[in-house]
Amino acid sequence: MPKFRHVGVPVKKKRPKEMYVAGGKVHITDPGASPFGFEYLRFEKGSPLPRKLQKEPHIAYEVEDLKAALKGRDVIVRPFDATPTLRVAFIVVDGVAVELMQKV
């Protein structure tokens, strides 16, 4: 069963303690620092990430087996290593963007 991790919220204004992810041209905050698990995302012009992620919130879940969780799904961002210990991908489920995360 997937485990809830956070809600990603696109924003236009800079947030305190943003981290920059060069590959995505996006500034993000730590959802662990939010009492409600919000991860704020501020995209730079020319970000390669899908417009859906740039314009709409997403919900993130941790899964045991990322490859298995992606089978038969509408993948909008293929799996990549977000950190040395975390592999992620994005799918769309019933019109909602979903981030799937696997600890490695």
Describe this structure in words.
By secondary structure, the chain is mostly beta strands. It has one domain (3-103): 2,3-Dihydroxybiphenyl 1,2-Dioxygenase, domain 1, CATH 3.10.180.10. It has two helices and eight strands. The protein has helices spanning 51-55, 66-70; strands at residues 3-10, 19-21, 26-28, 38-43, 58-62, 74-83, 86-93, 96-103. It has an eight-stranded mixed sheet. The mean pLDDT is 96.
Observed structural traits:
mainly beta, eight-stranded mixed β-sheet, 104 residues, 2,3-Dihydroxybiphenyl 1,2-Dioxygenase, domain 1
N-to-C order of helices and strands: EEEEHEHEEE
CATH architecture: Roll
Principal-axes geometry comes out as globular
Low-confidence stretches: none
Helix content: under 10%
Number of domains: 1
Topology, number of strands: 8
Roughly what fraction of the amino acids lie in strands? Answer: over 45%
Task: Chart the SSEs and their pairings.
Elements: E1 3-10, E2 19-21, E3 26-28, E4 38-43, H1 51-55, E5 58-62, H2 66-70, E6 74-83, E7 86-93, E8 96-103
Parallel strand pairs: 1-4, 5-8
Antiparallel strand pairs: 1-5, 2-3, 3-4, 6-7, 7-8
Short description:
With 104 residues, the chain is mostly beta strands.
